[in-house]
Specification:
By secondary structure, this protein is of the alpha+beta class. It has helices at residues 41-48, 54-60, and strands at 5-6, 14-18, 23-27, 33-36, 67-69. It is built from 2 helices and 5 strands, in the order E-E-E-E-H-H-E.
Length: 72
């Protein structure tokens, strides 16, 4: 079970991290959820940093990781 964290972002409404699977999960304002694999704890920390633009990090980094729609 994922522990979703509500975030304050125009591009993202919630996020979760599975350390065992090294996967970041993102929920967008339209309700869709995506997973991004091959993500370290350090990348998760950067993603959740208040100084990080989540939208920019998704575009510049996460979109280049294995990813797909999450139906969980």
């Amino acid at each position: 079970m994922l522990d979703w964290i509500a975030v304050s972002s125009t591009r993202v409404v919630a996020a979760a991290f599975d350390a065992d699977q090294e996967t970041i999960f993102v929920q967008f304002p339209d309700g869709s959820r995506w997973w991004y694999g091959g993500c370290s704890r350090e990348l998760w920390g950067e993603f959740m940093s208040p100084t990080t633009s989540m939208g920019r990090l998704i575009h510049d980094v996460l979109d280049h990781h294995p990813n797909g729609r999450y139906e969980g």
